[in-house]
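Revision sheet: structure tokens.
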Amino acid sequence: MPHIRAQSELIEHILGVIDTRLQLIDFKTKQMMSSFIDLETMQPKPHRFGMKIPSMESVVANNEKVLQQIEIYSKTVKVLLTIRAKVNVQNAFIVLYILEDNKFLNFKEDVIVRMLAMNFNEIKDKKFEEIYAMAC
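Predicted:
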């Protein structure tokens, strides 16, 4: 029973790490959006009295940056949710490895899915680079 409990605790730890990262992304997205949208009414924030009205070019450039950041956040959330749905005792150490320092951002989602679907007995004695090569 202690072995099963340890496995359960490992999975809970991994899910906690993923959930924390998802919450951080949600916070950053809301923080970024709140600079120009009232998040309660979803209406654009009016310019503050006395502030210079920005040029159309600067508004477009800023909106472009915001949209690019939202796209990055969205892709990250999608991959994290995929990992969260597929984590199990067999692939827990792969998940821990790719979560470390956000390494998962360096891999295509389909490669991550294939790595997580691998049979533990096939990969238990292999280095991560070998596992990655097998998934590609």
